[in-house]
Description:
Blueprint: H1 2-35, H2 42-46, H3 57-63, H4 66-99, H5 104-117, H6 120-130, H7 137-144, H8 156-183, H9 188-196, H10 201-212, H11 214-229, H12 233-238, H13 250-260, H14 264-294
Amino acid sequence: MKQFLNRHTPYFFIxxxxxxxxxxxxxxxxxxxxxxxxxxxxxxxADFSKINFIGFENYINILQDPVFLKSIGNTLFYVIVGVxxxxxxxxxxxxxxxxxxxxxxxxxxxxxxxxxxxxxVAVAIVWSYLYNPQFGLFNYLLSLIDLPxxxxxxxxxxxxxxxxILAVWRAIxxxxxxxxxxxxxxPKEYYEAAQLxxxxxxxxxxxxxxxxxxxxxxxxxxxxxxxxxxxFEEPFVMTKGGPLDSTNSVALFxxxxxxxxxxxGYAAAGSFILFIAIIIVTLIQxxxxxxxxxx
Length: 295
């Protein structure tokens, strides 16, 4: 009995986490996958006999849905513009805070981290007032320099950019902390040796700092890309996907069909398309990182 306990003690410790993972992650994924091949809706939830297996019909229809295709385009726009902005801004701020001697930059750590822990609904309400076309602060500042007002959330293209600005502002804090932790792990002797060799600040940045931050940059790139592929909160709270579905993301499209239109099978098919896309993009990033490490 004692030998049995000694052998299986580690499993007892990890079993609560495994049980929670199975109940709230793995089983829902399997159920959603099965649902994606059915026409389940509110009627089907009340009476399982009315649920019909329709094969790949949901997948075929959703890939022909113009709103879904537009959501894919919007999401790609968010990713292409937002991800590099988050990484560059987070890294730049982390470097300034880490290497600056001014005490004000230590206070900036709190300033930039606060938005990431603030409730997104509260943030969206405040930014809605800032983006107000008539009484918003941004257009008021533009009027002071004789510039015309900007339709921040009314124009299809500008609305996407407005949401990206808000999302970047919220995302900088967490990534900044990650970069700061990585920067503080770089030995100062490297910089001292570089200074003795006559290397300037930019040479130290690109020859020492950035190469030694490669794993941190890779981690932030993966997590940030996954987060922006699931871009949901900002368009949901600020624009509801409008105007004319110009800010609708794939995640918001899935929510609308699942919880507003009660097309659960259709929404499940969309969620698995997004799931596969995230896996493919993540595997590509790991492949590129592995290739860079072997060079």
